[in-house]
Amino acid sequence: MTSGVSLYFRLTGLLLVLLAVLCVVAYWYAEQRSGKIVQRDVDNQLMSSAALVLATSSASRADPGAGPQPADEVTQEDLNRAVIPAFEVSDAEGTLIAISPDFPVGVGQTDDGFSERDTGTIGWRILTVRNEALGLNARLAVDLADTESLASEARTEILAPLIAVLVLLAIVVLAAIWIGLRPLRQIEAEIGRLDPIRMARLDLDADKMPRELSRLTRTLDDLLDRLQKLIRHQKAFVSAAGHELRTPLAGCSTQLEVARRSREPAQRDKALEKLDQGLSRMGTLVEQLMIIARSEQSSLKDRATVFQLGELLEEIRDTLSSEKHRVTLRTDARQIRLSGHPDLIRSMVTNLVRNAIRASPPTEPVEVSLKSTRDGALIKVCDRGHGMNAEQKSQVFDSFHSGSGGTGLGLTIVNAVINAHEGQISIRDRHPRGVCIEVILPTKI
Amino acid sequence: MHILLVEDDTILGDGLEAGLTMEGHVVDWLTDGQDARAAVIGSDFDAVVLDLGLPGCDGRSVLQHWRRDGITTPVLVLTAFDRDAHCVETLDIGADDYVTKPIALPELTARLRAIQRRVVGGADNRLQLGDLVLDRESRTTTLSDRPVELSTFEHIILEALMERAGRPVDRETLEVRLYGWEDGPESNSLEVLIHNLRRKIGRDRIKTVRNLGYQFNA
Known about the structure:
The structure holds two protein chains of two kinds. Chain A has helices spanning 7-62, 76-81, 144-180, 182-193, 211-261, 265-295, 309-320, 342-359, 390-397, 410-420, and strands at residues 86-91, 96-99, 113-119, 122-131, 136-143, 305-308, 327-331, 337-340, 366-373, 376-382, 424-429, 435-441. By secondary structure, chain A is an alpha+beta fold. In chain A, the strands form three sheets. Chain A has a five-stranded antiparallel sheet with strand order 2-1-5-4-3. Chain A is rod-shaped and about 155 Å long. The two termini of chain B are 21 Å apart. Chain B is elongated, with a radius of gyration of 18 Å. In chain B, the strands form three sheets. Chain B has a five-stranded parallel sheet with strand order 2-1-3-4-5, sandwiched between helices. Chain B has a four-stranded antiparallel sheet with strand order 6-7-8-9, with helices on one face. Chain A binds chain B through residues 239, 242-244, 246-255, 257-258, 261-262, 267, 270-271, 274-275, 277-278, 281, 402, 404-405, and chain B through 8-9, 11-12, 14-16, 18-19, 22, 53-55, 78, 80-82, 100-105.
């Protein structure tokens, strides 16, 4: 079995993909925006520089001896401080009045307004301004690579905090997921601690769990309860089976040992005969254990058959009734049909009747009756024995009472079969003596 | 050894009785807890093999009664319960050993010998007094390293006397050891056995104590 990806990694992966997409979108947006903003900025700078250059040129032309003079609006200080792009000023006739040394050579004619020119290795953005009033033309140029580096600087400035925030966010969210998954880890750790032999509820308070997980915890607890019950039952069964089989097994092995060592034929024969008896008793016990095991299978219901209960009771009466111990059967509902397992029901009733025969004095018959009631078929097995005290009665309902003194697994079989058929058992005292054991089996088919 | 066996299962009880008898022990077998309670009082059992699931009176309460009444006879508990179910509790109320069924006869007899060793205080299965050595396990006797041929009954009597060397052992105790509760074959057979023993191991070793019985001279 390959294990799936951890929930934490899955959530983290999703988050990282989301962050990557966000980064790409942010980068794309910053690139678009920074390009436009820088372009606008550069253009504005070109325009204001143009105004400055024109003003300066016009002033210097008016007073050529004084050198370049600042215009009214522009102070010399302004001019010094300003970073003037490469420029060229000419008069209306096209005669060059002034040119900065970095102005590109060979740009040729340009139209008014912005245009772009390539002078071999460098791309230029050029602003051409024609001032009719001053009779001057100015052209200003900026290196497109400078614009680009400006744009990239702007991009970095926009992106850096954005990315930082995103990374911080990612860390916070990862931590939140880790903390959020803590109850799941607790459940996992608790389940890891479970001992398959001693199933117990998880050591977690379902009420303190998040709602989804509290449901999960409760469901798990329910399952564990059921498993615990099942395991306890299985253990009790195995222990009871072992207990029941140990004594006859010990008897058989001892008799075998005696037979093997004995030098006298009479003693050997006797030991072998006892061994034979012991083995047949063990066979009966194993058969009884199989009945109990079969009646505890959960798939029992699927394999139920419909049969006539009255006929089954008649068979049992015919088998068990003898000269010494009579068994009588009274039924007003011979046609009662039951859905279940006739062989299991037969074992159950046979055990009850046998117990009743054991309890009864030889002259008194064991009375079996079958009646149809609202709750189902009512089977009564009545004897005239010594009755039962409270302890004996409670033993009848104890699923794995190790009955000493002959009952053996009989009562265990009775209980197991009744449980398998969802029936009920009760004991009533009889007047003047004896007891009636009443078994109700639901007849719904 | 004179052993009281308390076991309600007829097949197992019969097998243990036969098996232990074949091993040279004298076995008295009871199937009821109430009977067992009374049987030990005033008797001279060397050991008891006690089942726990008994009708009438549960094996553990039988054991409790014995110990409360000051009966120190060693008790080996033989049970169908799981080993861990009652072991500690049963040992603590006075059992000397706790064994789960089924158990092989050789193991059971070895455990009984071990219990006996503890009672007598010996380091092994041998009883040694001077140059006379009796081995309980192989049921052989040697005198000055030469084997002495003893019958089963002679062995039983010699063992009983050697266990109580220096003290008199009464006739009744010796007879019960020989035959259990059933009557012995003849009333003078004990004298015959003592006579044979004296012939085989030397006259002076077994002294007759008037009105009391016999005593082994250490």
